[in-house]
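Many introductory courses stop at the sequence. We go one step further.
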Amino acid sequence: MSHLPPTAPPAGIAAQAEQWYAALQQPRPLLVVISGPSGVGKDVTIQRMKERGYPFHFVVTATTRPPRPGEQDGVHYHFMTEAQFLDLQARGELLEHAMVYGQYKGIPKAGVRTALASGQDVVMRIDVQGAATVRSLVPQAVTIFLTAESEEALIERLRRRRTDDQTQLQRRIETARAELLRATEFKYRVVNRECALDDTVDQVIAIMIAEKARIDWQPVTV
């Protein structure tokens, strides 16, 4: 019985295989949008991801609203004047921007570009309106709608914050109801249950890991 040497694959196929394996070694940075109504826990979810050491670049939102007690410029938000904000907008240096509760909010592009170019995942926390803008500009964005387990739970969380008077609280509740109707616009939904923050973080991380493994993954362009 004769043993024939294996036939070498055509040069074109061999080159494609080499490119395939080379691509496996390259980073696949994601642009992740975590959104949802006020009070659902967007900030604490991202903070717990940091505490657990999951690597990502957090994009700090620019806003014209004044800082709340304990908030630091450049950490929680980039606090700026309306003139400074409108200058960024005029130069096309905001990924998204909107008027929210009478104040401007937006995502500066510079930090997003730099992080993605270095191979880092980019995570941003924005409202539902802003998420729609990002989704239209960046179809590859991984959009996650964060929600409380019930309206009662959401209202209690908003009350515990003690940052709004009764009129403002009612406005946030009405806005949350309207935003829930737009949850189907997102790729994923995650329920942030009371006293189960680590479960929430586990789900967000699992989504990110799965997105990196997609056969049809495409690089993000901002």
